[in-house]
Amino acid sequence: MLVDFAVVRRAQQGESAAFNEIVLAYRKRTMGMISRLIARTEDVEDVAQEVFLRMYFSLDQLRAPEVFEPWLYRLTANAAYDYLRKQRRRPEFRMSDLSEQQVMMADAAAGGKAEHDRQQRKKLREAVDSLLGAVSEADRILLLMKEVEGLSLRELEKIYRVKENALKVRLFRARQRVLKAFEAAERKSESG
Amino acid sequence: MYPTQGGDDKLDSVWRAYRAACPDPEPSANFMPDLWRRIDSRRNFTFSFERMVRSFVTVAAAVTIAIGVYVSLPRATPASEVNYLEALAEANALDTPDNVGPVRLELNEPGR
Question: Which terminus has fewer CB within 10 Å in chain A: N or C?
Answer without folding.
Answer: C
